[in-house]
Amino acid sequence: MAGLWFMTDISRFVSKAGFANVTRPKGHKAFFKNGKRVYTFAYIVSGCMRYDISGQKQVTATAGTLLFIPKAVEYKAEYIEDESTMKVLTFDFTADPTDQFFQKPFNITSHRIKEVFDTIDHQNGINSMYLVSRLYKLFWLLGEMNVSTDKRFQRLFPAIQHIEQNYSDNVKISEYAKMSGMSESNFRKKFKQCTGMSPIDYRNSVRLNIANKLIQSKEYTVSEAAYFVGFNNMSFFYEAYKRQFGIGKIK
User: Which domain holds residue 241?
Assistant: First the structure.
């Protein structure tokens, strides 16, 4: 039997991974006026916390709750039960321009998330490679649960996922709308509100990012990369590529 091989890329590159296990008395407060210089996952192990995050409703987090706070976002945290304990994962990352994942705060409770934090302790919490592996596991789980998408747009997820996984397919907008259980007109409107782009522009942007990686790898010519991701019109590809990445980058 012939082997089947798949090629893929990691779209988020993690750096500055850190871990802390923090226990504080009732009434202890922390205020980050300018936010942190890194992204933060705060998992409540026991007790109860209250968070006031800029631009968001106040959140009361009990044991088993995971909060995500983007970097440079002002917030306050207060321990509202004695001996409240949380595990904190901090990190930075680079991502593709189309990545919508970590733009807004969110909170979630899930036994699958608990299992990730249960494996992190004082011993392996100083191992940066281990922390990075836990972060990628979280990325995968949260992506599966689609928690970072505004609830107004969660119906779009099947279509967005299909575009990102099948970017070379010229699927009709009506088919994307059907995947999301929406009328085509409502789908187009919600998609633009969610991503800032039309479905076709979003698909082209995904294609261009993949093509750029192939070109920069030196393993594909420009025309091979364009064809691989689904562009048959080279003139259109050149113009779209230059708009997204700048004149002079394409070789």
Answer: 152-245
Answer whether residue 97 shows pLDDT above 60.
no
Domain boundary among 123, 148, 173: 148
206-210 long-range contacts, Cβ below 8 Å, gap at least 24? 206/98, 206/163, 206/164, 206/167, 207/167, 207/168, 207/231, 208/240, 208/241, 208/244, 208/245, 209/96, 209/97, 209/98, 209/244, 210/9, 210/167
The verdict on pTM exceeding 0.90 is no
Instruction: List strands edge to edge, sheet with 59-62.
Output: 29-32, 75-79, 48-53, 59-62
Residue 138 and residue 64 share a domain: yes
Strands (E), the chain: 12-24, 29-32, 39-46, 48-53, 59-62, 65-69, 75-79, 84-95, 106-109
User: Which of 33-42, 61-70, 159-168, 234-243 shows the lowest mean pLDDT across its residues?
Assistant: 159-168
